transketolase
Amino acid sequence: MEGVSNEACSLAGHWGLGKLIVFYDDNHISIDGDTAIAFTENVDQRFEALGWHVIWVKEGNTDYDAIREAIAKAKEETERPTLIKVTTTIGYGSPNKANTYSVHGSALGAKEVDATRKNLNWSHEPFCVPEDVKGHWSRHVKLGAQHEAKWQADLAAYEKKYPQEAAEFKSLISGEFPAGWAEALPKYTPESAGDATRNLSQACLNALAKVLPGLLGGSADLASSNMTLLKMFGDFQKDTPTERNLRFGVREHGMGAICNGIALHGSGLIPYCATFFVFTDYMRGAMRISALSEAGVIYVMTHDSIGLGEDGPTHQPIEHLASFRAMPNMLMLRPADGNETAGAYKVAVENRKRPSTLALSRQKLPQLAGTSIEGVEKGGYIISDNSTGNKPDLIIFGTGSELEIACKAADVIKKEGKTVRVVSLVCWELFEEQSAEYKESVIPAGVSARVSVEAGSTFGWNKYLGYKGKAVGIDHFGASAPAGILYKEFGITVENVVAKAKEVM
Protein backbone atom coordinates (compact mmCIF):
# COMPACT_ATOMS: atom_id res chain seq x y z
CA MET A 1 0.00 0.00 0.00
CA GLU A 2 2.78 2.43 0.87
CA GLY A 3 3.83 4.86 -1.83
CA VAL A 4 7.54 4.07 -1.63
CA SER A 5 6.92 0.58 -3.01
CA ASN A 6 5.14 1.96 -6.05
CA GLU A 7 7.91 4.51 -6.65
CA ALA A 8 10.60 1.85 -6.53
CA CYS A 9 8.61 -0.75 -8.48
CA SER A 10 7.78 1.78 -11.19
CA LEU A 11 11.50 2.34 -11.75
CA ALA A 12 12.24 -1.39 -11.60
CA GLY A 13 9.75 -1.93 -14.41
CA HIS A 14 11.14 0.98 -16.41
CA TRP A 15 14.70 -0.26 -16.02
CA GLY A 16 13.71 -3.84 -16.84
CA LEU A 17 15.38 -5.37 -13.80
CA GLY A 18 14.98 -8.99 -14.87
CA LYS A 19 16.98 -10.37 -11.95
CA LEU A 20 14.58 -8.89 -9.39
CA ILE A 21 12.05 -11.35 -7.91
CA VAL A 22 9.60 -10.02 -5.29
CA PHE A 23 7.30 -12.19 -3.17
CA TYR A 24 3.97 -10.62 -2.22
CA ASP A 25 2.33 -12.36 0.75
CA ASP A 26 -1.29 -11.92 -0.24
CA ASN A 27 -2.98 -12.78 3.09
CA HIS A 28 -5.58 -9.96 3.11
CA ILE A 29 -4.81 -8.98 6.71
CA SER A 30 -3.23 -5.82 8.15
CA ILE A 31 -3.09 -4.51 11.71
CA ASP A 32 -6.55 -2.95 11.55
CA GLY A 33 -8.23 -6.02 10.06
CA ASP A 34 -9.05 -7.24 6.58
CA THR A 35 -7.28 -5.17 3.92
CA ALA A 36 -10.63 -4.73 2.14
CA ILE A 37 -11.43 -1.87 4.52
CA ALA A 38 -8.89 0.29 2.68
CA PHE A 39 -7.31 -1.70 -0.17
CA THR A 40 -9.36 -3.13 -3.03
CA GLU A 41 -7.22 -2.48 -6.11
CA ASN A 42 -6.08 -5.26 -8.44
CA VAL A 43 -2.43 -5.65 -7.50
CA ASP A 44 -1.71 -7.98 -10.43
CA GLN A 45 -2.92 -5.45 -12.97
CA ARG A 46 -1.08 -2.60 -11.27
CA PHE A 47 2.23 -4.43 -11.48
CA GLU A 48 1.57 -5.51 -15.04
CA ALA A 49 0.97 -1.83 -15.85
CA LEU A 50 4.33 -1.05 -14.21
CA GLY A 51 6.00 -3.45 -16.62
CA TRP A 52 6.35 -6.47 -14.33
CA HIS A 53 5.95 -10.17 -14.95
CA VAL A 54 3.27 -11.40 -12.50
CA ILE A 55 2.77 -14.98 -11.25
CA TRP A 56 0.01 -16.02 -8.86
CA VAL A 57 0.41 -18.97 -6.50
CA LYS A 58 -3.15 -19.57 -5.37
CA GLU A 59 -2.40 -21.97 -2.49
CA GLY A 60 0.62 -20.67 -0.67
CA ASN A 61 0.06 -22.58 2.57
CA THR A 62 0.82 -26.07 1.28
CA ASP A 63 1.47 -26.05 -2.49
CA TYR A 64 5.26 -26.03 -2.33
CA ASP A 65 5.61 -27.34 -5.89
CA ALA A 66 3.66 -24.35 -7.21
CA ILE A 67 6.01 -22.00 -5.34
CA ARG A 68 9.07 -23.81 -6.77
CA GLU A 69 7.58 -23.63 -10.25
CA ALA A 70 6.90 -19.91 -9.85
CA ILE A 71 10.50 -19.27 -8.83
CA ALA A 72 11.75 -21.23 -11.86
CA LYS A 73 9.53 -19.22 -14.21
CA ALA A 74 10.66 -15.97 -12.58
CA LYS A 75 14.30 -16.87 -13.21
CA GLU A 76 13.53 -17.56 -16.86
CA GLU A 77 12.14 -14.04 -17.28
CA THR A 78 15.18 -11.81 -17.91
CA GLU A 79 13.56 -8.71 -19.43
CA ARG A 80 11.18 -7.81 -16.61
CA PRO A 81 11.16 -7.97 -12.80
CA THR A 82 8.79 -10.61 -11.43
CA LEU A 83 6.14 -10.34 -8.72
CA ILE A 84 5.15 -13.71 -7.26
CA LYS A 85 1.83 -13.22 -5.50
CA VAL A 86 1.40 -15.99 -2.95
CA THR A 87 -2.05 -16.21 -1.42
CA THR A 88 -1.71 -17.47 2.14
CA THR A 89 -3.56 -17.63 5.43
CA ILE A 90 -1.91 -15.55 8.11
CA GLY A 91 -1.35 -17.64 11.22
CA TYR A 92 -1.89 -20.83 9.24
CA GLY A 93 -2.49 -23.77 11.60
CA SER A 94 -3.75 -21.71 14.52
CA PRO A 95 -7.30 -23.01 15.15
CA ASN A 96 -8.58 -19.80 16.74
CA LYS A 97 -6.47 -16.96 15.35
CA ALA A 98 -5.68 -17.93 11.75
CA ASN A 99 -6.85 -15.37 9.17
CA THR A 100 -7.36 -12.65 11.80
CA TYR A 101 -5.57 -9.40 12.57
CA SER A 102 -4.89 -10.62 16.14
CA VAL A 103 -2.09 -12.85 14.83
CA HIS A 104 -0.52 -10.03 12.79
CA GLY A 105 1.40 -8.19 15.46
CA SER A 106 1.01 -10.23 18.63
CA ALA A 107 2.29 -13.55 19.93
CA LEU A 108 -0.17 -16.44 19.85
CA GLY A 109 0.09 -17.01 23.60
CA ALA A 110 0.91 -20.28 25.34
CA LYS A 111 -2.62 -21.73 25.08
CA GLU A 112 -2.95 -21.04 21.36
CA VAL A 113 0.59 -22.25 20.66
CA ASP A 114 -0.30 -25.56 22.26
CA ALA A 115 -3.53 -25.75 20.24
CA THR A 116 -1.61 -24.97 17.03
CA ARG A 117 0.98 -27.67 17.72
CA LYS A 118 -1.79 -30.22 18.16
CA ASN A 119 -3.60 -28.99 15.06
CA LEU A 120 -0.43 -29.39 12.95
CA ASN A 121 0.53 -32.70 14.59
CA TRP A 122 3.84 -31.15 15.67
CA SER A 123 5.04 -33.29 18.54
CA HIS A 124 8.59 -31.97 18.89
CA GLU A 125 9.75 -29.94 21.86
CA PRO A 126 10.00 -26.14 21.54
CA PHE A 127 13.08 -25.02 19.57
CA CYS A 128 13.81 -28.60 18.50
CA VAL A 129 14.98 -28.97 14.88
CA PRO A 130 14.14 -32.55 13.78
CA GLU A 131 16.96 -34.47 12.12
CA ASP A 132 15.18 -34.81 8.79
CA VAL A 133 14.64 -31.04 8.66
CA LYS A 134 18.24 -30.39 9.64
CA GLY A 135 19.47 -32.80 7.00
CA HIS A 136 17.28 -31.23 4.33
CA TRP A 137 18.66 -27.75 4.96
CA SER A 138 22.24 -28.85 5.64
CA ARG A 139 22.59 -30.07 2.07
CA HIS A 140 23.02 -26.42 1.13
CA VAL A 141 26.41 -26.34 2.88
CA LYS A 142 27.84 -28.72 0.31
CA LEU A 143 25.95 -27.11 -2.57
CA GLY A 144 27.08 -23.69 -1.47
CA ALA A 145 30.72 -24.76 -1.46
CA GLN A 146 30.31 -26.08 -4.98
CA HIS A 147 28.71 -22.86 -6.18
CA GLU A 148 31.48 -20.78 -4.58
CA ALA A 149 34.20 -22.95 -6.15
CA LYS A 150 32.63 -22.48 -9.59
CA TRP A 151 32.33 -18.73 -9.02
CA GLN A 152 36.00 -18.49 -8.05
CA ALA A 153 36.99 -20.50 -11.13
CA ASP A 154 34.91 -18.23 -13.36
CA LEU A 155 36.51 -15.17 -11.76
CA ALA A 156 40.01 -16.59 -12.33
CA ALA A 157 39.19 -17.18 -15.98
CA TYR A 158 37.78 -13.66 -16.28
CA GLU A 159 40.87 -12.23 -14.60
CA LYS A 160 43.13 -14.01 -17.07
CA LYS A 161 41.17 -12.67 -20.04
CA TYR A 162 40.41 -9.18 -18.68
CA PRO A 163 43.06 -8.35 -16.05
CA GLN A 164 42.31 -4.62 -15.82
CA GLU A 165 38.55 -5.06 -15.42
CA ALA A 166 39.05 -7.88 -12.93
CA ALA A 167 41.38 -5.73 -10.82
CA GLU A 168 38.75 -2.98 -10.77
CA PHE A 169 36.05 -5.48 -9.82
CA LYS A 170 38.13 -6.91 -6.97
CA SER A 171 38.89 -3.42 -5.72
CA LEU A 172 35.18 -2.58 -5.69
CA ILE A 173 33.97 -5.65 -3.81
CA SER A 174 36.82 -5.34 -1.30
CA GLY A 175 35.72 -1.81 -0.42
CA GLU A 176 39.21 -0.45 -1.04
CA PHE A 177 39.61 2.90 -2.75
CA PRO A 178 42.24 3.53 -5.42
CA ALA A 179 45.47 4.97 -4.02
CA GLY A 180 45.48 8.76 -3.97
CA TRP A 181 41.83 9.09 -4.96
CA ALA A 182 41.29 12.16 -2.78
CA GLU A 183 43.95 14.07 -4.71
CA ALA A 184 41.40 14.37 -7.51
CA LEU A 185 39.29 16.73 -5.40
CA PRO A 186 39.59 20.34 -6.56
CA LYS A 187 41.41 22.92 -4.45
CA TYR A 188 40.77 26.63 -4.19
CA THR A 189 42.39 29.85 -3.01
CA PRO A 190 40.71 33.13 -2.01
CA GLU A 191 41.61 34.37 -5.48
CA SER A 192 39.60 31.61 -7.16
CA ALA A 193 36.28 32.64 -8.65
CA GLY A 194 33.32 32.42 -6.32
CA ASP A 195 30.50 30.02 -7.07
CA ALA A 196 27.42 28.38 -5.60
CA THR A 197 28.33 25.31 -3.58
CA ARG A 198 25.90 23.27 -5.73
CA ASN A 199 28.19 24.04 -8.71
CA LEU A 200 31.30 23.30 -6.66
CA SER A 201 29.61 20.01 -5.72
CA GLN A 202 29.26 19.10 -9.39
CA ALA A 203 32.97 19.76 -9.88
CA CYS A 204 33.70 17.35 -7.03
CA LEU A 205 31.35 14.66 -8.36
CA ASN A 206 32.86 14.80 -11.83
CA ALA A 207 36.40 14.77 -10.47
CA LEU A 208 35.64 11.78 -8.24
CA ALA A 209 33.84 9.85 -10.99
CA LYS A 210 37.15 9.66 -12.87
CA VAL A 211 38.94 7.93 -9.98
CA LEU A 212 36.12 6.08 -8.19
CA PRO A 213 34.59 3.57 -10.61
CA GLY A 214 31.85 2.72 -8.10
CA LEU A 215 30.46 6.26 -7.82
CA LEU A 216 27.02 6.62 -9.40
CA GLY A 217 23.81 8.45 -8.70
CA GLY A 218 21.31 11.01 -9.76
CA SER A 219 18.50 13.34 -8.89
CA ALA A 220 14.73 13.27 -8.38
CA ASP A 221 13.98 15.15 -11.62
CA LEU A 222 16.18 18.11 -10.61
CA ALA A 223 19.59 17.22 -12.06
CA SER A 224 19.94 20.57 -13.85
CA SER A 225 19.22 22.40 -10.57
CA ASN A 226 21.06 20.07 -8.20
CA MET A 227 24.02 19.99 -10.62
CA THR A 228 24.54 16.27 -10.18
CA LEU A 229 25.12 15.01 -13.73
CA LEU A 230 28.33 13.12 -14.38
CA LYS A 231 29.28 14.77 -17.66
CA MET A 232 31.45 11.95 -19.00
CA PHE A 233 28.68 9.38 -18.63
CA GLY A 234 25.23 8.84 -20.09
CA ASP A 235 22.03 7.68 -18.45
CA PHE A 236 21.65 4.28 -16.84
CA GLN A 237 18.77 2.69 -18.74
CA LYS A 238 17.62 -0.78 -19.70
CA ASP A 239 19.76 -0.76 -22.83
CA THR A 240 22.69 1.19 -21.36
CA PRO A 241 23.46 -0.51 -18.02
CA THR A 242 27.10 0.60 -17.90
CA GLU A 243 26.23 4.30 -17.60
CA ARG A 244 26.27 6.01 -14.21
CA ASN A 245 23.64 8.77 -14.23
CA LEU A 246 20.47 7.48 -12.55
CA ARG A 247 17.25 9.24 -13.55
CA PHE A 248 14.97 8.74 -10.55
CA GLY A 249 12.09 10.93 -11.72
CA VAL A 250 9.89 12.64 -9.14
CA ARG A 251 10.30 9.80 -6.65
CA GLU A 252 12.23 11.12 -3.65
CA HIS A 253 11.32 8.35 -1.21
CA GLY A 254 11.94 5.61 -3.75
CA MET A 255 15.23 7.27 -4.72
CA GLY A 256 16.50 7.12 -1.15
CA ALA A 257 15.36 3.52 -0.72
CA ILE A 258 17.05 2.46 -3.97
CA CYS A 259 20.29 4.13 -2.88
CA ASN A 260 20.09 2.26 0.43
CA GLY A 261 19.87 -0.98 -1.52
CA ILE A 262 22.87 -0.05 -3.64
CA ALA A 263 24.92 0.91 -0.58
CA LEU A 264 24.05 -2.28 1.32
CA HIS A 265 24.46 -4.67 -1.61
CA GLY A 266 28.15 -5.23 -0.88
CA SER A 267 29.27 -4.54 -4.43
CA GLY A 268 31.42 -1.54 -3.50
CA LEU A 269 29.22 0.95 -5.34
CA ILE A 270 28.97 4.43 -3.78
CA PRO A 271 25.51 5.88 -4.40
CA TYR A 272 24.53 9.53 -4.24
CA CYS A 273 21.12 11.09 -4.77
CA ALA A 274 19.83 14.62 -4.90
CA THR A 275 16.89 16.96 -4.57
CA PHE A 276 16.13 20.31 -2.95
CA PHE A 277 16.94 20.25 0.77
CA VAL A 278 13.34 20.98 1.73
CA PHE A 279 12.19 17.89 -0.20
CA THR A 280 13.97 15.65 2.26
CA ASP A 281 10.54 15.80 3.89
CA TYR A 282 9.41 13.37 1.17
CA MET A 283 12.25 10.92 1.77
CA ARG A 284 13.07 11.22 5.45
CA GLY A 285 12.03 7.61 6.08
CA ALA A 286 14.66 6.37 3.63
CA MET A 287 17.31 8.68 5.08
CA ARG A 288 16.60 7.44 8.59
CA ILE A 289 16.95 3.87 7.34
CA SER A 290 20.32 4.85 5.86
CA ALA A 291 21.46 5.97 9.29
CA LEU A 292 19.91 2.99 11.07
CA SER A 293 21.27 0.44 8.58
CA GLU A 294 24.74 2.02 8.31
CA ALA A 295 24.30 2.63 4.60
CA GLY A 296 26.83 5.16 3.33
CA VAL A 297 24.54 7.02 0.94
CA ILE A 298 25.60 10.54 -0.07
CA TYR A 299 22.61 12.90 -0.02
CA VAL A 300 23.28 15.96 -2.18
CA MET A 301 20.75 18.56 -1.06
CA THR A 302 20.80 21.93 -2.80
CA HIS A 303 18.83 25.16 -2.31
CA ASP A 304 19.65 24.92 1.38
CA SER A 305 18.15 28.11 2.82
CA ILE A 306 16.13 31.26 2.21
CA GLY A 307 19.00 32.06 -0.17
CA LEU A 308 17.10 30.22 -2.90
CA GLY A 309 14.88 33.28 -3.13
CA GLU A 310 11.62 33.62 -5.01
CA ASP A 311 10.39 30.02 -4.78
CA GLY A 312 9.24 31.07 -1.35
CA PRO A 313 8.56 29.38 1.98
CA THR A 314 7.35 26.08 0.49
CA HIS A 315 10.86 25.56 -0.88
CA GLN A 316 12.93 27.27 1.82
CA PRO A 317 14.34 24.92 4.50
CA ILE A 318 14.16 26.23 8.05
CA GLU A 319 14.14 23.33 10.54
CA HIS A 320 15.92 20.84 8.30
CA LEU A 321 19.51 21.35 9.46
CA ALA A 322 18.47 20.94 13.09
CA SER A 323 16.40 17.85 12.31
CA PHE A 324 19.24 16.00 10.59
CA ARG A 325 21.70 17.02 13.28
CA ALA A 326 19.31 15.30 15.69
CA MET A 327 19.31 12.08 13.67
CA PRO A 328 21.72 9.43 15.04
CA ASN A 329 24.51 8.26 12.71
CA MET A 330 23.85 10.97 10.11
CA LEU A 331 26.61 13.37 9.10
CA MET A 332 25.07 16.78 8.38
CA LEU A 333 27.56 18.90 6.41
CA ARG A 334 27.02 22.48 5.28
CA PRO A 335 30.11 23.68 3.40
CA ALA A 336 30.83 27.35 2.81
CA ASP A 337 33.01 27.32 -0.31
CA GLY A 338 35.05 25.15 -2.66
CA ASN A 339 37.54 23.76 -0.18
CA GLU A 340 34.81 22.89 2.31
CA THR A 341 32.71 21.27 -0.40
CA ALA A 342 35.69 19.14 -1.42
CA GLY A 343 36.21 18.28 2.25
CA ALA A 344 32.55 17.31 2.60
CA TYR A 345 32.91 14.87 -0.30
CA LYS A 346 36.08 13.38 1.15
CA VAL A 347 34.25 12.76 4.41
CA ALA A 348 31.16 11.40 2.66
CA VAL A 349 33.10 8.96 0.47
CA GLU A 350 35.20 7.66 3.36
CA ASN A 351 32.21 7.06 5.63
CA ARG A 352 30.80 3.85 4.20
CA LYS A 353 28.81 3.02 7.33
CA ARG A 354 27.38 6.51 7.85
CA PRO A 355 25.20 8.43 5.42
CA SER A 356 26.11 12.05 4.74
CA THR A 357 23.80 14.93 3.91
CA LEU A 358 25.40 17.86 2.10
CA ALA A 359 23.42 21.13 2.27
CA LEU A 360 24.47 23.27 -0.69
CA SER A 361 23.68 26.81 -1.78
CA ARG A 362 21.93 28.07 -4.86
CA GLN A 363 23.56 31.50 -4.58
CA LYS A 364 27.16 32.31 -5.47
CA LEU A 365 29.61 32.42 -2.54
CA PRO A 366 33.22 33.62 -2.34
CA GLN A 367 36.23 31.37 -1.76
CA LEU A 368 37.19 32.19 1.82
CA ALA A 369 40.64 32.43 3.38
CA GLY A 370 41.38 29.78 5.96
CA THR A 371 39.01 27.04 4.79
CA SER A 372 40.41 23.57 4.14
CA ILE A 373 39.58 19.94 3.47
CA GLU A 374 41.44 19.02 6.66
CA GLY A 375 39.32 21.42 8.68
CA VAL A 376 36.10 19.87 7.42
CA GLU A 377 37.36 16.45 8.50
CA LYS A 378 37.40 17.77 12.07
CA GLY A 379 33.86 19.13 11.78
CA GLY A 380 34.71 22.50 13.29
CA TYR A 381 37.86 24.60 12.99
CA ILE A 382 39.24 28.12 13.17
CA ILE A 383 39.39 29.99 9.86
CA SER A 384 40.49 33.37 11.24
CA ASP A 385 41.73 34.63 14.62
CA ASN A 386 43.69 37.67 15.79
CA SER A 387 43.84 36.63 19.44
CA THR A 388 46.67 35.13 21.46
CA GLY A 389 46.72 32.57 24.23
CA ASN A 390 43.44 31.00 23.16
CA LYS A 391 41.59 33.95 24.70
CA PRO A 392 39.66 35.86 22.02
CA ASP A 393 37.22 38.52 23.12
CA LEU A 394 34.58 36.96 20.91
CA ILE A 395 33.89 33.77 18.94
CA ILE A 396 31.63 33.91 15.87
CA PHE A 397 30.33 30.61 14.48
CA GLY A 398 29.08 30.21 10.95
CA THR A 399 28.19 27.52 8.43
CA GLY A 400 27.62 27.47 4.70
CA SER A 401 26.65 30.73 3.06
CA GLU A 402 26.71 32.58 6.40
CA LEU A 403 30.37 31.88 7.09
CA GLU A 404 31.13 34.83 4.82
CA ILE A 405 28.87 37.02 7.00
CA ALA A 406 30.71 35.79 10.10
CA CYS A 407 34.05 36.76 8.57
CA LYS A 408 32.86 40.23 7.56
CA ALA A 409 31.35 40.86 10.99
CA ALA A 410 34.64 39.81 12.59
CA ASP A 411 36.52 42.31 10.43
CA VAL A 412 34.22 45.11 11.61
CA ILE A 413 34.70 44.22 15.28
CA LYS A 414 38.47 43.79 14.92
CA LYS A 415 38.68 47.39 13.69
CA GLU A 416 37.25 48.42 17.05
CA GLY A 417 40.23 46.88 18.82
CA LYS A 418 38.73 43.54 19.75
CA THR A 419 40.12 40.07 19.17
CA VAL A 420 37.74 37.82 17.26
CA ARG A 421 37.87 34.17 16.30
CA VAL A 422 35.73 32.84 13.43
CA VAL A 423 34.87 29.15 13.60
CA SER A 424 33.37 27.11 10.79
CA LEU A 425 31.12 24.44 12.32
CA VAL A 426 30.58 22.64 9.04
CA CYS A 427 29.68 19.30 10.67
CA TRP A 428 28.67 19.14 14.32
CA GLU A 429 28.84 15.34 14.43
CA LEU A 430 32.49 15.23 13.37
CA PHE A 431 33.40 18.03 15.76
CA GLU A 432 31.87 16.15 18.68
CA GLU A 433 34.10 13.17 17.85
CA GLN A 434 37.28 15.19 18.33
CA SER A 435 39.31 15.09 21.52
CA ALA A 436 38.45 17.33 24.44
CA GLU A 437 41.77 19.08 23.92
CA TYR A 438 41.01 19.89 20.31
CA LYS A 439 37.52 21.16 21.09
CA GLU A 440 38.94 23.38 23.84
CA SER A 441 41.49 24.77 21.39
CA VAL A 442 38.66 25.81 19.06
CA ILE A 443 35.97 26.80 21.58
CA PRO A 444 37.69 27.64 24.87
CA ALA A 445 35.42 27.26 27.86
CA GLY A 446 36.69 30.52 29.30
CA VAL A 447 35.28 32.57 26.42
CA SER A 448 31.55 33.12 26.93
CA ALA A 449 31.07 35.88 24.35
CA ARG A 450 29.78 33.85 21.40
CA VAL A 451 27.52 34.49 18.41
CA SER A 452 26.31 32.11 15.71
CA VAL A 453 24.94 32.97 12.28
CA GLU A 454 23.08 30.45 10.14
CA ALA A 455 20.11 30.91 7.80
CA GLY A 456 18.01 28.26 9.51
CA SER A 457 16.46 27.38 12.83
CA THR A 458 18.50 28.43 15.85
CA PHE A 459 17.46 25.21 17.59
CA GLY A 460 20.52 23.42 18.95
CA TRP A 461 22.99 26.29 18.78
CA ASN A 462 22.82 26.83 22.55
CA LYS A 463 25.06 23.76 22.78
CA TYR A 464 27.92 25.90 21.53
CA LEU A 465 26.73 29.36 22.54
CA GLY A 466 26.17 28.72 26.25
CA TYR A 467 23.80 30.77 28.39
CA LYS A 468 25.28 34.10 27.34
CA GLY A 469 25.65 33.66 23.59
CA LYS A 470 23.33 34.91 20.86
CA ALA A 471 22.07 33.05 17.79
CA VAL A 472 21.31 34.84 14.53
CA GLY A 473 18.97 32.67 12.47
CA ILE A 474 15.38 32.13 11.40
CA ASP A 475 12.75 30.54 13.63
CA HIS A 476 9.81 31.13 11.31
CA PHE A 477 8.97 30.32 7.71
CA GLY A 478 10.55 32.30 4.90
CA ALA A 479 9.01 34.41 2.14
CA SER A 480 9.13 34.89 -1.61
CA ALA A 481 11.66 37.56 -2.55
CA PRO A 482 15.22 37.86 -3.87
CA ALA A 483 17.81 36.38 -1.51
CA GLY A 484 19.41 39.73 -0.66
CA ILE A 485 16.10 41.22 0.43
CA LEU A 486 15.23 38.18 2.54
CA TYR A 487 18.58 38.19 4.33
CA LYS A 488 18.14 41.87 5.16
CA GLU A 489 14.50 41.52 6.26
CA PHE A 490 15.24 38.54 8.50
CA GLY A 491 18.39 40.02 10.04
CA ILE A 492 20.90 37.58 8.57
CA THR A 493 23.35 40.43 8.06
CA VAL A 494 26.77 41.62 9.06
CA GLU A 495 25.17 44.53 10.94
CA ASN A 496 22.96 42.25 13.04
CA VAL A 497 25.81 39.89 13.86
CA VAL A 498 27.90 42.89 14.98
CA ALA A 499 24.99 44.16 17.10
CA LYS A 500 24.54 40.77 18.77
CA ALA A 501 28.27 40.55 19.40
CA LYS A 502 28.24 43.86 21.22
CA GLU A 503 25.45 42.57 23.44
CA VAL A 504 27.57 39.67 24.69
CA MET A 505 31.01 41.30 24.94
